[in-house]
Amino acid sequence: MMTLKSFYPRFIKEARELMALALPIIISQLALQGMNFVDTAMAGQASAVDLASVAIASSLWVPVRLLMRGTLMALPPTIAHHRGAGDNGEIVLDIAQALWIALLFSLVLIAYLLGAEGVLRFMNVAPEIIPAATGYMHALAFGVPAIAAYLTLNGLCEGMGDTRAPMFISIAGLLTNIPVNYILIYGKLGMPAMGAVGCGWATSLVYWVMSLLLFGYLKLNGQYKGLLPSLQQLSLDWTRAKNLFGLGLPIGLTIFVEGSIFAGVALLIGQLGTTAVASHQIAMNVSGLTFMVPLSISFAITVRVGHALGAERLDTAKLRTVSGMILAVMCAVVAALCLVTFPDAITRIYTTDPIVSHSAGLLLVYAAVYQLSDALQAAAAGSLRGFRDTRWPMLLVTIAYWGIGIPVGYVLGITDIVTRPMGPAGFWIGLISGLTAAAIFLGVRLITVIRRVEKHTPMTVPETFEAAA
Description:
The chain is mostly helical. Helices cover 81% and strands 0% of the residues.
């Protein structure tokens, strides 16, 4: 049995290697999330209606983007397994099928974005918000193919353990987004002032730039020679595509379910008026930024665990799992302290409206509370992806978020069943409940999977661990 004294040096070594992989992912994710931050902050300076429009539109767009992102996340652990086994030929074939999956998602999401106005009206969103929110989503439709291509190519980089190039490209995207937003939102250089709609066009344009930059990097970098599929290799392989999609869809649905709870809360809060929506969006945007750290660590855990299992080193996979969870918790504690200590300074970045600022500051306290459980569930999910266990996590988080989080939030936020309607605060208590339940469920599932894999064969990894369950 490993003692704390013997574990510590192994943890320090693994933590350094994990952070070497995770830090560029963290910076990349912060840069990508920073684009949403820039949209929110700059739209908020235009007007409260523009801020609320971005909030509502994001609540409909982000979950489906996460669904595509999550489904394509089957690529990094799959590539990591092939890389651990030294089989580059399999990598090429899986990249080709991932591109087909990305194309399918692009077509579906474009149709979804173009029909968003009907969804907004069905949800009884405040009438003054609908026009700009609809225009924002129509503008995003133009960038969907670029987003899909970027996520696929980024999955190749992550699976190969190369996270620095996407980091620099993400930073370039963020730096490009700021001036383009400025021009389109406020109407500079002869352009009309488009408000929230300008944010959507800026995001689309920036993703086209990012996808082209990443493709150019892969073509010029010798490490990827022979890994990008040729035109002949781009033919659709139904069996391989089905297997990759079958592995990725539960991941996508898991992340979608988590994102949808926040979207569902935003849409329900949309019935409470512009001020409630704006304050919720500020707190949600800040929380989204802090979550990028444990989320990025979870991506690194997936790759590290997948690589270890591809090389048939289960003990190493377990060490990487534990080390990753400890790191995620440490980062969550730091984030929570910052949210509690500097709420006023944070909200002033977004708005000068004292009522919105005060309401958002109160919600940041709730955001601080769920940092720990959010970090734990993200790290556990990351390790489970490395073990290729995706179906049970999907079911468990669905129960946690929609069976616990949303009902608790609805009862406390809108009804008087338990207490007087608490408004946005009640919904945030629901978020805390859902995320805490998810952390417990996924933690138990992770322990179960590891034990069953150990019993299966300590030195042999099954093709899919659902089969071992």
